[in-house]
Task: structure prediction
Amino acid sequence: MKDLILEPHPVQARAGATIDWELSRTSSHATARPGTWGRFGSRLIPEELWCGRINGVAMNAIVLICLSLLLSPIPALGDSAAKIVIDEWPVPWQGTRPRDPYVGPEGLVWFVGQAGHYVASFDPATDEFARFDLESGTGPHNLIVGDDGMVWYAGNLKAHIGRLDPVSGAIRKYPMPDSRAADPHTLVFDGQGHIWFTVQWGNFVGRLRIADGTVELVEVPTPRARPYGIAVDSGGRPWIVELGSNKLASVDPETLQLEEIPLPREEARPRRLAITSDDQVWYVDYAGGYLGRYDPATGKIEEWPTPSADQSGPYGMVVDNRDRLWFVETGVSPNQFVGFDTKARTYIGSTPIPSGAGSVRHMYFDAKTSDIWFGTDTNNLGRARLSESAEITG
Result:
Protein backbone atom coordinates (compact mmCIF):
# COMPACT_ATOMS: atom_id res chain seq x y z
CA MET A 1 0.00 0.00 0.00
CA LYS A 2 1.28 3.47 -0.87
CA ASP A 3 2.06 5.92 1.86
CA LEU A 4 -0.38 8.78 2.40
CA ILE A 5 1.11 12.27 2.32
CA LEU A 6 -0.59 15.20 4.01
CA GLU A 7 1.07 18.48 3.10
CA PRO A 8 0.51 21.85 4.80
CA HIS A 9 -1.17 24.36 2.49
CA PRO A 10 -1.75 27.53 4.57
CA VAL A 11 -2.22 29.70 1.47
CA GLN A 12 -5.57 28.00 0.84
CA ALA A 13 -6.77 27.86 4.44
CA ARG A 14 -10.48 28.28 4.96
CA ALA A 15 -11.94 31.75 5.36
CA GLY A 16 -12.12 32.83 8.96
CA ALA A 17 -9.32 30.61 10.29
CA THR A 18 -6.63 32.67 11.92
CA ILE A 19 -2.98 32.14 11.12
CA ASP A 20 -0.99 33.66 13.93
CA TRP A 21 2.60 34.56 13.05
CA GLU A 22 5.45 35.80 15.19
CA LEU A 23 7.84 37.87 13.12
CA SER A 24 11.09 39.48 14.18
CA ARG A 25 11.51 42.99 12.79
CA THR A 26 15.14 42.14 12.02
CA SER A 27 14.58 38.72 10.52
CA SER A 28 12.40 37.17 7.85
CA HIS A 29 11.97 34.00 9.96
CA ALA A 30 8.39 33.29 10.94
CA THR A 31 6.69 30.45 12.77
CA ALA A 32 3.06 29.43 12.41
CA ARG A 33 1.21 28.66 15.61
CA PRO A 34 -1.44 25.94 16.02
CA GLY A 35 -4.68 26.81 14.29
CA THR A 36 -3.25 26.76 10.77
CA TRP A 37 -4.91 24.53 8.19
CA GLY A 38 -3.51 22.18 5.59
CA ARG A 39 -5.02 20.43 2.60
CA PHE A 40 -5.94 16.80 1.97
CA GLY A 41 -7.04 16.52 -1.63
CA SER A 42 -9.55 19.35 -1.96
CA ARG A 43 -10.34 19.46 1.74
CA LEU A 44 -8.72 21.62 4.42
CA ILE A 45 -7.47 19.95 7.59
CA PRO A 46 -6.19 21.37 10.89
CA GLU A 47 -2.52 21.53 11.67
CA GLU A 48 -2.96 19.11 14.55
CA LEU A 49 -3.60 16.34 12.00
CA TRP A 50 -0.57 17.06 9.84
CA CYS A 51 1.42 13.84 10.02
CA GLY A 52 3.93 14.22 7.23
CA ARG A 53 4.32 10.74 5.73
CA ILE A 54 2.01 8.19 7.35
CA ASN A 55 2.65 4.47 6.97
CA GLY A 56 0.07 1.86 6.06
CA VAL A 57 -0.40 0.79 9.68
CA ALA A 58 -2.17 4.07 10.47
CA MET A 59 -4.17 4.15 7.22
CA ASN A 60 -7.55 3.07 8.62
CA ALA A 61 -7.55 5.71 11.32
CA ILE A 62 -6.48 8.42 8.92
CA VAL A 63 -9.16 7.46 6.38
CA LEU A 64 -11.84 7.75 9.07
CA ILE A 65 -10.53 11.15 10.12
CA CYS A 66 -10.43 12.40 6.52
CA LEU A 67 -13.96 11.14 5.81
CA SER A 68 -15.28 13.02 8.82
CA LEU A 69 -13.54 16.17 7.61
CA LEU A 70 -14.93 15.77 4.12
CA LEU A 71 -18.46 15.57 5.50
CA SER A 72 -18.17 18.38 8.01
CA PRO A 73 -19.61 21.81 7.06
CA ILE A 74 -17.38 24.82 6.48
CA PRO A 75 -18.32 27.58 8.92
CA ALA A 76 -20.19 30.59 7.56
CA LEU A 77 -19.28 34.23 7.94
CA GLY A 78 -19.80 35.91 11.30
CA ASP A 79 -23.30 36.50 12.65
CA SER A 80 -22.99 40.27 13.22
CA ALA A 81 -22.66 42.47 10.18
CA ALA A 82 -23.32 45.97 8.97
CA LYS A 83 -26.00 46.08 6.33
CA ILE A 84 -24.89 47.85 3.16
CA VAL A 85 -26.67 49.09 0.07
CA ILE A 86 -24.63 49.63 -3.10
CA ASP A 87 -25.59 52.24 -5.71
CA GLU A 88 -23.76 52.92 -8.97
CA TRP A 89 -23.80 55.75 -11.51
CA PRO A 90 -22.48 55.33 -15.06
CA VAL A 91 -19.75 57.90 -15.70
CA PRO A 92 -20.68 59.75 -18.92
CA TRP A 93 -17.23 59.45 -20.51
CA GLN A 94 -16.96 55.88 -21.71
CA GLY A 95 -13.84 53.75 -21.34
CA THR A 96 -12.01 56.24 -19.10
CA ARG A 97 -11.48 54.06 -15.98
CA PRO A 98 -12.97 56.35 -13.29
CA ARG A 99 -11.20 55.66 -10.02
CA ASP A 100 -10.00 56.75 -6.58
CA PRO A 101 -12.88 59.03 -5.48
CA TYR A 102 -12.51 61.46 -2.60
CA VAL A 103 -15.23 63.60 -0.97
CA GLY A 104 -14.39 67.30 -0.80
CA PRO A 105 -15.46 69.82 1.87
CA GLU A 106 -18.58 70.84 -0.07
CA GLY A 107 -19.80 67.25 -0.45
CA LEU A 108 -18.77 66.83 -4.09
CA VAL A 109 -17.20 63.48 -4.96
CA TRP A 110 -13.98 64.01 -6.89
CA PHE A 111 -12.30 61.30 -8.98
CA VAL A 112 -9.86 60.83 -11.84
CA GLY A 113 -10.34 59.32 -15.27
CA GLN A 114 -7.07 57.43 -15.61
CA ALA A 115 -7.57 56.49 -19.26
CA GLY A 116 -9.40 59.74 -20.10
CA HIS A 117 -6.79 62.12 -18.62
CA TYR A 118 -9.21 64.19 -16.56
CA VAL A 119 -10.26 65.14 -13.05
CA ALA A 120 -14.02 65.14 -12.47
CA SER A 121 -16.62 65.78 -9.79
CA PHE A 122 -20.00 64.25 -9.04
CA ASP A 123 -22.77 65.88 -7.04
CA PRO A 124 -24.79 63.17 -5.21
CA ALA A 125 -27.60 65.67 -4.61
CA THR A 126 -28.21 66.32 -8.31
CA ASP A 127 -26.50 63.35 -10.03
CA GLU A 128 -24.51 65.85 -12.11
CA PHE A 129 -20.97 65.30 -13.33
CA ALA A 130 -18.40 67.99 -14.20
CA ARG A 131 -15.06 67.46 -15.95
CA PHE A 132 -11.68 69.20 -15.91
CA ASP A 133 -9.37 68.07 -18.70
CA LEU A 134 -5.67 67.59 -17.95
CA GLU A 135 -2.75 67.62 -20.35
CA SER A 136 -3.08 64.79 -22.88
CA GLY A 137 -1.30 61.67 -21.70
CA THR A 138 -1.27 62.63 -17.99
CA GLY A 139 -2.75 59.30 -16.88
CA PRO A 140 -3.94 60.52 -13.46
CA HIS A 141 -3.86 57.62 -11.04
CA ASN A 142 -5.24 59.05 -7.81
CA LEU A 143 -6.42 62.25 -6.13
CA ILE A 144 -7.05 63.78 -2.70
CA VAL A 145 -8.87 66.97 -1.74
CA GLY A 146 -7.74 69.48 0.88
CA ASP A 147 -9.90 71.32 3.40
CA ASP A 148 -9.45 74.40 1.20
CA GLY A 149 -11.08 72.57 -1.71
CA MET A 150 -7.88 72.22 -3.73
CA VAL A 151 -7.66 68.96 -5.66
CA TRP A 152 -4.29 67.19 -5.77
CA TYR A 153 -3.75 64.46 -8.36
CA ALA A 154 -0.94 62.06 -9.29
CA GLY A 155 0.21 62.64 -12.87
CA ASN A 156 1.24 59.01 -13.26
CA LEU A 157 2.42 59.24 -16.89
CA LYS A 158 3.84 62.77 -16.69
CA ALA A 159 6.07 62.57 -13.60
CA HIS A 160 4.35 65.22 -11.52
CA ILE A 161 1.82 65.89 -8.80
CA GLY A 162 -0.74 68.47 -9.84
CA ARG A 163 -2.94 70.90 -7.91
CA LEU A 164 -6.25 71.89 -9.47
CA ASP A 165 -8.18 74.94 -8.32
CA PRO A 166 -11.83 73.98 -9.02
CA VAL A 167 -12.96 77.60 -9.00
CA SER A 168 -10.57 78.97 -11.62
CA GLY A 169 -9.58 75.70 -13.30
CA ALA A 170 -5.91 76.65 -12.88
CA ILE A 171 -3.42 73.81 -12.51
CA ARG A 172 0.00 73.97 -10.89
CA LYS A 173 2.44 71.12 -11.43
CA TYR A 174 5.08 69.86 -9.00
CA PRO A 175 7.64 67.84 -10.99
CA MET A 176 9.57 64.91 -9.57
CA PRO A 177 13.19 65.87 -8.75
CA ASP A 178 14.59 62.54 -10.01
CA SER A 179 13.94 61.29 -13.56
CA ARG A 180 13.61 57.74 -12.21
CA ALA A 181 10.55 58.80 -10.21
CA ALA A 182 8.44 58.95 -13.34
CA ASP A 183 5.15 57.57 -12.01
CA PRO A 184 3.65 59.17 -8.88
CA HIS A 185 1.00 56.70 -7.77
CA THR A 186 -1.09 57.13 -4.58
CA LEU A 187 -1.31 60.28 -2.42
CA VAL A 188 -2.22 60.83 1.24
CA PHE A 189 -2.28 63.86 3.56
CA ASP A 190 -0.44 63.55 6.87
CA GLY A 191 -2.32 66.32 8.71
CA GLN A 192 0.95 68.21 9.18
CA GLY A 193 1.17 70.14 5.92
CA HIS A 194 2.58 67.37 3.74
CA ILE A 195 1.46 64.94 1.07
CA TRP A 196 3.12 61.53 1.15
CA PHE A 197 3.01 59.42 -1.98
CA THR A 198 4.28 56.25 -3.62
CA VAL A 199 6.15 55.91 -6.92
CA GLN A 200 5.45 52.35 -8.01
CA TRP A 201 7.83 51.56 -10.87
CA GLY A 202 10.38 54.20 -9.89
CA ASN A 203 10.65 52.47 -6.49
CA PHE A 204 10.35 55.54 -4.26
CA VAL A 205 8.28 56.93 -1.41
CA GLY A 206 7.93 60.70 -1.59
CA ARG A 207 6.88 63.72 0.44
CA LEU A 208 5.62 67.01 -0.94
CA ARG A 209 5.74 70.02 1.38
CA ILE A 210 2.57 71.93 0.57
CA ALA A 211 3.86 75.27 1.89
CA ASP A 212 6.81 75.61 -0.50
CA GLY A 213 6.30 72.82 -3.06
CA THR A 214 9.50 70.95 -2.14
CA VAL A 215 9.48 67.29 -3.15
CA GLU A 216 11.67 64.80 -1.24
CA LEU A 217 12.21 61.20 -2.34
CA VAL A 218 13.21 58.11 -0.37
CA GLU A 219 14.40 55.15 -2.44
CA VAL A 220 13.12 51.71 -1.44
CA PRO A 221 16.10 49.37 -0.95
CA THR A 222 14.39 46.23 -2.26
CA PRO A 223 14.75 46.17 -6.07
CA ARG A 224 11.46 46.31 -7.97
CA ALA A 225 9.54 46.56 -4.67
CA ARG A 226 6.72 48.49 -6.37
CA PRO A 227 5.57 50.65 -3.42
CA TYR A 228 1.82 50.86 -3.92
CA GLY A 229 -0.81 51.63 -1.27
CA ILE A 230 -0.01 54.18 1.44
CA ALA A 231 -1.64 55.34 4.69
CA VAL A 232 -0.57 57.54 7.62
CA ASP A 233 -0.90 56.66 11.30
CA SER A 234 -1.95 58.98 14.14
CA GLY A 235 1.63 60.18 14.60
CA GLY A 236 2.03 61.26 10.98
CA ARG A 237 4.16 58.28 10.02
CA PRO A 238 3.47 56.86 6.53
CA TRP A 239 3.06 53.12 5.99
CA ILE A 240 3.43 51.49 2.60
CA VAL A 241 2.77 48.09 1.03
CA GLU A 242 5.19 46.74 -1.56
CA LEU A 243 3.30 44.97 -4.34
CA GLY A 244 6.51 43.65 -5.88
CA SER A 245 7.67 41.96 -2.68
CA ASN A 246 6.27 40.45 0.50
CA LYS A 247 7.01 43.52 2.60
CA LEU A 248 5.47 46.43 4.41
CA ALA A 249 7.47 49.61 4.84
CA SER A 250 7.38 52.80 6.88
CA VAL A 251 9.29 56.08 6.83
CA ASP A 252 10.43 58.10 9.82
CA PRO A 253 9.12 61.61 9.04
CA GLU A 254 11.97 63.22 11.01
CA THR A 255 14.93 61.39 9.46
CA LEU A 256 13.34 60.04 6.25
CA GLN A 257 14.80 56.64 7.12
CA LEU A 258 12.80 53.80 5.55
CA GLU A 259 12.26 50.49 7.33
CA GLU A 260 10.96 47.34 5.62
CA ILE A 261 9.02 44.61 7.44
CA PRO A 262 8.87 41.21 5.70
CA LEU A 263 5.61 39.28 5.86
CA PRO A 264 5.84 35.60 6.84
CA ARG A 265 4.88 34.17 3.44
CA GLU A 266 7.38 34.74 0.63
CA GLU A 267 4.60 34.62 -1.97
CA ALA A 268 2.54 37.39 -0.34
CA ARG A 269 1.96 40.52 -2.45
CA PRO A 270 0.29 43.23 -0.36
CA ARG A 271 -1.51 45.86 -2.45
CA ARG A 272 -3.56 48.16 -0.21
CA LEU A 273 -3.63 48.95 3.49
CA ALA A 274 -5.63 50.77 6.15
CA ILE A 275 -4.79 51.86 9.70
CA THR A 276 -7.27 51.56 12.55
CA SER A 277 -7.61 54.06 15.41
CA ASP A 278 -5.22 52.00 17.57
CA ASP A 279 -2.51 52.37 14.89
CA GLN A 280 -2.66 48.72 13.85
CA VAL A 281 -1.62 48.31 10.21
CA TRP A 282 -4.01 46.16 8.16
CA TYR A 283 -3.31 45.03 4.61
CA VAL A 284 -4.72 42.84 1.87
CA ASP A 285 -2.54 40.25 0.12
CA TYR A 286 -3.61 40.45 -3.51
CA ALA A 287 -1.75 37.32 -4.62
CA GLY A 288 -2.63 34.93 -1.81
CA GLY A 289 -6.10 36.08 -0.78
CA TYR A 290 -5.40 37.16 2.78
CA LEU A 291 -6.30 39.96 5.17
CA GLY A 292 -3.43 40.72 7.55
CA ARG A 293 -2.66 42.80 10.63
CA TYR A 294 0.74 44.09 11.73
CA ASP A 295 1.28 45.44 15.24
CA PRO A 296 4.12 48.00 15.08
CA ALA A 297 4.63 47.83 18.85
CA THR A 298 5.23 44.08 19.07
CA GLY A 299 6.09 43.03 15.52
CA LYS A 300 3.31 40.45 15.61
CA ILE A 301 1.52 39.56 12.38
CA GLU A 302 -1.86 37.81 12.10
CA GLU A 303 -3.58 36.76 8.88
CA TRP A 304 -7.08 35.65 7.92
CA PRO A 305 -7.88 33.93 4.59
CA THR A 306 -10.46 35.98 2.70
CA PRO A 307 -13.89 34.46 1.93
CA SER A 308 -12.92 33.59 -1.66
CA ALA A 309 -9.50 32.33 -0.53
CA ASP A 310 -6.84 32.19 -3.24
CA GLN A 311 -9.38 33.28 -5.88
CA SER A 312 -10.09 36.50 -3.99
CA GLY A 313 -7.68 39.08 -5.43
CA PRO A 314 -8.46 41.59 -2.63
CA TYR A 315 -7.70 45.12 -3.81
CA GLY A 316 -9.50 48.37 -2.83
CA MET A 317 -9.57 48.72 0.98
CA VAL A 318 -10.76 51.23 3.58
CA VAL A 319 -11.51 51.52 7.30
CA ASP A 320 -14.67 53.16 8.66
CA ASN A 321 -15.28 55.20 11.82
CA ARG A 322 -16.03 52.04 13.84
CA ASP A 323 -12.71 50.43 12.88
CA ARG A 324 -14.42 47.98 10.56
CA LEU A 325 -12.49 47.11 7.43
CA TRP A 326 -14.00 46.95 3.97
CA PHE A 327 -12.29 45.56 0.89
CA VAL A 328 -13.28 44.28 -2.53
CA GLU A 329 -12.49 40.83 -3.85
CA THR A 330 -11.65 41.53 -7.51
CA GLY A 331 -10.65 38.01 -8.50
CA VAL A 332 -14.27 36.84 -8.56
CA SER A 333 -17.19 38.00 -10.68
CA PRO A 334 -19.14 39.88 -9.64
CA ASN A 335 -16.63 41.59 -7.34
CA GLN A 336 -17.56 41.07 -3.68
CA PHE A 337 -17.70 43.92 -1.15
CA VAL A 338 -16.46 42.31 2.08
CA GLY A 339 -16.59 43.57 5.67
CA PHE A 340 -14.41 42.59 8.63
CA ASP A 341 -14.89 43.46 12.30
CA THR A 342 -11.41 44.17 13.68
CA LYS A 343 -12.60 43.91 17.29
CA ALA A 344 -14.39 40.57 16.94
CA ARG A 345 -11.81 39.38 14.38
CA THR A 346 -14.49 38.02 12.08
CA TYR A 347 -15.94 38.66 8.64
CA ILE A 348 -19.29 40.46 8.68
CA GLY A 349 -20.75 39.80 5.27
CA SER A 350 -20.02 39.82 1.57
CA THR A 351 -22.15 41.74 -0.94
CA PRO A 352 -21.91 41.50 -4.75
CA ILE A 353 -21.39 44.77 -6.63
CA PRO A 354 -24.33 45.05 -9.06
CA SER A 355 -22.35 45.98 -12.19
CA GLY A 356 -19.78 43.25 -11.51
CA ALA A 357 -17.26 46.12 -11.15
CA GLY A 358 -14.43 44.45 -13.08
CA SER A 359 -12.05 45.81 -10.49
CA VAL A 360 -12.27 48.25 -7.58
CA ARG A 361 -8.83 49.74 -7.06
CA HIS A 362 -9.18 52.25 -4.23
CA MET A 363 -11.92 53.44 -1.86
CA TYR A 364 -12.77 56.41 0.34
CA PHE A 365 -14.84 56.50 3.54
CA ASP A 366 -16.87 59.66 4.15
CA ALA A 367 -17.29 59.98 7.93
CA LYS A 368 -20.03 62.61 7.55
CA THR A 369 -22.39 60.23 5.77
CA SER A 370 -20.95 56.76 6.55
CA ASP A 371 -20.68 56.17 2.81
CA ILE A 372 -17.84 54.42 1.01
CA TRP A 373 -17.10 55.67 -2.51
CA PHE A 374 -15.29 53.74 -5.23
CA GLY A 375 -14.76 53.62 -8.99
CA THR A 376 -15.06 50.52 -11.17
CA ASP A 377 -13.45 49.22 -14.32
CA THR A 378 -17.00 48.92 -15.70
CA ASN A 379 -16.92 52.75 -15.88
CA ASN A 380 -19.14 53.42 -12.89
CA LEU A 381 -18.88 55.52 -9.77
CA GLY A 382 -20.11 53.50 -6.79
CA ARG A 383 -21.33 54.15 -3.28
CA ALA A 384 -21.77 51.65 -0.44
CA ARG A 385 -24.09 52.99 2.23
CA LEU A 386 -23.43 51.58 5.70
CA SER A 387 -26.12 51.28 8.34
CA GLU A 388 -26.19 50.24 11.99
CA SER A 389 -28.25 47.13 11.22
CA ALA A 390 -26.99 43.79 12.49
CA GLU A 391 -28.34 41.78 9.58
CA ILE A 392 -26.19 40.06 7.01
CA THR A 393 -26.94 41.06 3.43
CA GLY A 394 -24.78 38.62 1.57
